[in-house]
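TASK: fixed-backbone design
INPUT:
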């Protein structure tokens, strides 16, 4: 059973990462509707605002409680996030709470937790609110995907992207439930589960980047295509880990190298979009979003690899 200190720290770290991801999912859906579907866009905006409120609450609770490794990882906020939000808000006309990015950068890097019954209750309540809000968001995504696939709705988002962000929401909810019940996960099973999930996510990121690039961006297209194939192969290898766990350390080391390379590619893409040096059908916030997910996965992989030694 997780200690109170571990429960609070892991909960806040998880929510700091995933609540920002979820609110951005709502934004990406909102921005991709045509004028015919204003009501759906408004629903997405309402979800975005609710998730933004929960993220603000998480930031207020997290100061001095989360680990320096998470703060330094670039998974919560990057050096590009504020500018990516500013540019994306300008392009879309949709308001984003950029102050939360400034607040995220200012979180205390010294781990000085003061574990009180009040904080414990606040974090438990936050987890439950995050479960409720993300479940509503997941239901919205699921219905949207069904309507897209049955040609009832048109959106400028790929159907695979909606399926992709639906899987992320469900993955987040699963981990929240594990925390709420104070489950101590099996290390080996957790590593395999995380690698199967995130390798597929990384592969799809590369394919989305490839598909959003202007046809003139030939070199970037080829690089993104190569990353898609690399992570498809890593996903298939991770799936075999349930029966061949002895080669897990080798696979994790290989995955760290691939993820670090993809992270560097996403970093360059984020900077290029902000500086208007890349031709693409993508707002800068999308690039920063997938960069943070790569940073998150890279931290997990590094932690897992150290524990496997």
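OUTPUT:
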């Amino acid at each position: 059973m997780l200690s109170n200190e571990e429960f609070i720290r892991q909960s806040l770290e998880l929510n700091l990462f995933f609540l920002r991801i979820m609110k951005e999912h709502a934004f990406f859906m909102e921005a991709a509707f045509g004028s015919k579907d204003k009501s759906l866009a408004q629903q997405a905006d309402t979800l975005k605002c609710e998730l933004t409120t929960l993220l603000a609450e998480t930031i207020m609770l997290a100061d001095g409680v989360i680990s320096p490794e998470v703060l330094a990882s670039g998974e919560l906020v990057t050096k590009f996030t504020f500018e990516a939000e500013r540019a994306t808000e300008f392009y879309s006309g949709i308001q984003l709470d950029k102050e939360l990015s400034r607040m995220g950068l200012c979180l205390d890097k010294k781990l000085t937790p003061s574990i009180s019954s009040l904080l414990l209750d606040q974090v438990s309540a936050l987890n439950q609110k995050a479960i409720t809000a993300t479940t509503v968001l997941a239901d919205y995504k699921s219905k949207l995907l069904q309507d897209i696939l049955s040609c009832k709705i048109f959106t400028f988002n790929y159907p695979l992207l909606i399926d992709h962000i639906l899987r992320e929401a469900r993955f987040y909810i699963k981990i929240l439930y594990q925390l709420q019940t104070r489950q101590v996960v099996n290390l080996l099973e957790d590593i395999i589960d995380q690698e199967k999930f995130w390798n597929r996510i990384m592969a799809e990121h590369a394919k989305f980047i490839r598909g959003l690039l202007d046809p003139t961006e030939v070199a970037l297209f080829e690089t993104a295509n190569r990353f898609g194939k690399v992570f498809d192969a890593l996903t298939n290898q991770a799936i075999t880990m349930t029966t061949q766990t002895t080669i897990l350390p080798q696979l994790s080391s290989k995955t760290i190298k691939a993820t670090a390379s993809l992270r560097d590619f996403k970093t360059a893409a984020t900077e290029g979009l902000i500086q208007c040096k890349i031709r693409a059908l993508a707002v800068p916030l999308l690039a920063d979003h997938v960069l943070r997910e790569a940073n998150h996965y890279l931290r997990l992989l590094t932690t897992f690899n150290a524990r496997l030694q």
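COMMENT: The domain at 186-309 is CATH 1.20.1260.120 (Ferritin).
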